[in-house]
Write a structure and sequence with these properties.
The strands form 2 sheets. This protein has a 6-stranded antiparallel beta sheet, with no helix packed on it. It has one helix spanning about 155-165; strands at about 1-5, 15-20, 30-40, 45-50, 55-60, 65-70, 85-95, 100-105, 105-110, 125, 140-145. The chain has about 170 residues and is mainly beta.
Length: about 170
């Protein structure tokens, strides 16, 4: 699904929550699979997906690295597990280096610095781009986005707890 949601509105502060389920990691794309959401015009814009090795990939990270790849998870914290509903959030905060973050089921996975990117003003849900080249093999239950509103750690946990209770997600 493609929507006219702009992940780059003024480029400063965007937070997105997604409730999702992965069903499989089939063969296909050389590097990326299971795009959750985003907008990539092949310039490492803002998107979230998994790699063929089941690493979580977040783009829109500092201009030197372009993305972070998270691959080591505790047994109870695995965003790439198959067949269960999960909550993931990413906060891109361009104006405060080191204050961007990625959370999974109420747990902080990483903090990073993000940068402003120029991209299309559309976002794909269930993919990483409007070109539909990295489709999600699973389902999106909910997608919520805030613009120009910093979500504190305690509020982030409350948002995750709300979605986890609503979707009957256990840790």
């Amino acid at each position: 699904m493609t929507s006219n949601i702009d992940l780059n509105v003024d480029g400063s502060l965007v937070t997105a929550f997604v409730v999702y389920r992965l069903d499989s990691f089939p063969g296909g794309h050389e590097h990326f699979q299971n795009g959750l959401f985003g907008n990539d015009n092949f310039g490492w814009d803002k998107f979230v997906c998994f790699t063929t090795r089941k690493d979580l990939l977040i783009s829109g990270v500092d201009s030197a690295n372009k993305h972070i790849k998270l691959s080591t998870f505790l047994n109870t914290t695995n965003p790439s597990s198959i067949g269960t509903w999960k909550v993931l959030s990413v906060q891109w905060n361009v104006n405060a280096p080191g204050y961007s973050s990625v959370w999974y089921n109420g747990k902080l996975l990483a903090r990073f610095s993000s940068y402003a990117v120029e991209a299309d003003t559309k976002v794909a849900l269930g993919d990483v781009s409007t070109f539909h080249n990295v489709p999600l093999n699973g389902a999106i239950g909910e997608f919520v986005m805030y613009r120009n509103r910093y979500i504190t750690d305690s509020s982030m946990i409350k948002h995750h707890e709300y979605f986890m209770k609503k979707w009957k997600i256990s840790e």
